[in-house]
Amino acid sequence: xxxxxxPKKLSFQKAKLSFVLFGIVxxxxxxxxYRVTFVPPSLSxxxxxxxxxxxxxxxxxxxEHGRFLPLDAFVGYGDYKPPVAVYLTxxxxxxxxxxxxxxxxPSVIGGTLAVLLTYFLVIELYKGYNNYKDYNRYIALLSxxxxxxxxxxxxxxxxxxxxxxxxTILLSGVLLxxxxxxxxxxxxxxxxxxxLAMYTFNSARYVAPLLGLLxxxxxxxxxxxxxxxxxxxMAIALLSLAPLVPHLVSPExxxxxxxxxxxxxxxxxxxANERMAMDGGGLLANxxxxxxxxxxxxxxxxxxxxxxxxxxxxxxxxxxxxSLQDVxxxxxxxxxxxxxxxxxxxxxxxxxxxxxxxxLIFAILPAAVARETPHALRIExxxxxxxxxxxxxxxxxxxxxxxxMSSPRVRFGEAGRDPEKEGWIPGQARNDNRRTNMLLTAxxxxxxxxxxxSYFWHNYFNHYVKEYSSExxxxxxxxxxxxxxxxxxxNNVVVSEAYGRSYMYTLFFTRTDPSSYLKxxxxxxxxxxxxxxxxxxxxxxxxxGIGSFDQNTLYIGLPVEAPGGARVLATINRPNGEPxxxxxxxx
Length: 587
Known about the structure:
This protein has helices spanning 2-33, 45-60, 84-96, 100-126, 136-148, 151-157, 162-179, 192-198, 204-218, 220-225, 227-240, 245-248, 251-260, 266-278, 283-288, 291-305, 309-314, 334-348, 350-364, 385-401, 427-468, 476-486, 502-510, 514-520, and strands at residues 492-495, 522-525, 531-536, 539-540, 553-557, 567-573, 579-585. It is mainly alpha-helical. A hairpin with a 5-residue loop joins strand 6 and strand 7 (579-585). The N and C termini lie far apart (93 Å).
């Protein structure tokens, strides 16, 4: 009878967990998709570039520069964007048109899939460890839930960031590698997502190989046991890199790297030279004040910037596009569980602990080279390591809270001793106490998480839009809509470059035909390699201000750019009431 009832019990338990997982994934999609066309309040420079290039590929098969189906990179503003995000956006533009929804939906879906992948990834990570056999599914569910409500991942999933898509692709690769331990044929394809991630986001070009080596080391015995599958998989991965390699060694790629990395910071060299001169030169001075030592120290500073409590738990990234500014990248409530989770992992399974630590390190190493640190977007590949460790800390804390207090071993009826007075608790009562302790602790943790998430959610939808709309170049869409009401009466339209990339916002929101744009555009690359468009069709984009103030010309600019005597036709206000643009002419 027991042999029959046991599978039914397990089946019911599995169905219950599957239902919970389904609820988490559906909830993750909802909170990422809810009002996504309004919050964030406007499309960023990168989003309109991705969207219009996807539109151009859909209509002509060429990007905004006329390149046919580029595989290495999209030139864009001269920043040479990896191509995957653009191609992923093409079908959404075909379905929803050139719009905010089409640009952001790939990231929303990618973020939701990351939550689902996290669950299965944790199951694979903990598989085979007896220490976790009773808790692994709960840890997996909780890890997925924590990623679903993470302020870090949630905010980046609601905008069309390439990094968010790269993370999901990387997670699928890690999962396939771990699954190959039981299904060796996966060794032929498990490395493809790592290569695909390199075509998706710049930081992933360094993180993906490092993570690939880490998990290759973990499955090395399986690869040796199935060499044929392993060799085929490696060959496919290396061949897939062929279109990317020429770009990685090109002058354009080196120029972009030189502009953002700390090793081109001359102030470090100047400081080293000054100190060597003050010490009178000599061997010791040359060793102590060598610029390489200075760069190494600067690199370590930038690396450890990403572990600052202020960044992780209090304020988050200094760029409002990546953080609410008064909520950390992680919730403050997660700090003690992160610390305790690290402690428990190292005391229960060192191998798993070091796997997660190296994942975290490899995800941050490339970002530490950049001048701007800490940077939440560039280290998004460190997710969901934080959530996995925190989930383990929470589950083991709950397990600890359910332990019964030690009591003397006393037999009922033993002469001269009263078991209840001496603290002995009967089995059923002891189990009830354990269950009560766990429920109380879980309720407290849940309440704190609910409060933390509610604070984030309320501020994100009610205050963030008003306080930081300018960071998202708010007003271009509204200005173009107003402009289209008047432009038929004018020979030319001049749009100020005050907020940057006005040509791309004009292309996007007017849905300009890519073929006509390619024929009429006037553009150039500057000395730093950045791309500038001065005009196309009847639209003009002066370098500074509005240029000359002429009749029969419609102007879109800042309020301060409207000359005396200008006739203001419309004013575009930000959500906080401040004017973003005015539309005017010369009467």
